[in-house]
Amino acid sequence: MKPSSSPPSFFFWCNLTITLTFAFLGTSLIAQDKAQTFRAGAYAMDITPQNFPVSSAGSMAHRTADSAHDPLNARCIVLDDGKTKIAFAICDSCMIPREVYDAAKEIASKATGIPVSNILCSATHTHTAVTAGPTFRSLVQEDYLPYLTQRIAEGIIKANERLEAARIGWAVGNNPNHVFNRRWFMRKGFDLTNPFDQQDKVRMNPPAGGKELVKPAGPVDPDVMVVSIQSPDGKKPIAMLSNYSLHYCGGVPGKQLSADYFGEFAKQFGELIGAGPEFVGIMSNGTSGDINNVNFFEGRVREKPFEQIRYVAGDVAKSAKIAYDRIEYHDWVPLKVAETEIELGVRKADKAGLARAKKIVAAVGGKAPRGKQEIYAFETLDMAKYPDTVKVKLQAIRIGELGIVSSPCETFVETGLAIKKQSPLRTTFVIELANGYNGYLPTPEQHDLGGYETWRAKSSYLSTDSEPKIRATLLKLLGDVAKD
User: Is 191 within the bounds of a domain?
Assistant: First the structure.
């Protein structure tokens, strides 16, 4: 075209403006579409030990396992709203120390770009997994910890590699059949002497069906939380994150490892919805520090090994399926995370308590401690070496109008119910034993009642004012993520 020295016409400017406007809008819409694409990926990473025998957690005495009845897994999910990524890794373990989680998160973060603060790792609390953290006389399987760390990280990395377009939804189911408060008030005359020769007011795990039982010392939470992730057309289930406030089932032979009902639930739920082999079903532990699977008031017949696990998993899976079928899905939801660290006090024995413990331990000599009095005397001396305070990590995650918070403790159901009720988000649940392990978390009122969960040991050492501080912090974090 021959160049012109005359100024551009009015129509030229109009056409140019229209062209640039559409170009801008097109670019903006493309950017918006990209930002509004929701993606998800999931992977179940095997964390079963490679060599046996191994130390098995969940008992006051040291014990070992020679085999695994079923696989232990770190079941991982990564979510991406186009701006923010979050990851979950729910591990078949009794409890896992913070150092392992922190190291795994660092590895996964460097490989995926997911901020460490946006990764939530937790233990299911199966009592038949490898001993990863110190409790009572169980010996930590030290050579397993580097393997566990690497496998958790690899699970998150694999889930991130599987990111694909997805939709997400959630619903709350209900199953009161398997949750019973295990702390009971007993009739006058029932012996409530604790290992420190003091009198408690309640008994943990009393004789089932006994006439001495009066009433439970706390409530239960029958909610079965279901978070479902599917392909955009709904034809392919990708993953499901569930949550139920049940300690564990048990009924596993002493020399075997098992994921308990947590693993069996994942298997049975996948079968119920006809999911493919890459589907990752997950059952996380809610607030079950004072909850058990035993109907103490009526009693129950002892089942054959694994029978109760299969029954509970199947029944809860059916309840989850009912909720699953009612889910309304979202093609895109915003993701937000808030994380903080707080410092809590550590309970230790006074001079008289230490002197008493030393006397008992001296009398035991080189033998293994037997009975609660001797076991807790050793625990008292171990606790004397603990620092005066510990730092714990707390998180709140928002997925649309759904809130998820973490607790590093075996948290009482009262705490979970209070957080659900006071949360600014419409639906909220707690994943306990997350991002570390700091023992039981009784409320101050439950501390006053005594009972196993309050007895000072590596399994229960936080100061009596810790629960209100953790609860208040989690509610504040929920408030932070709830803001638009």
Answer: no
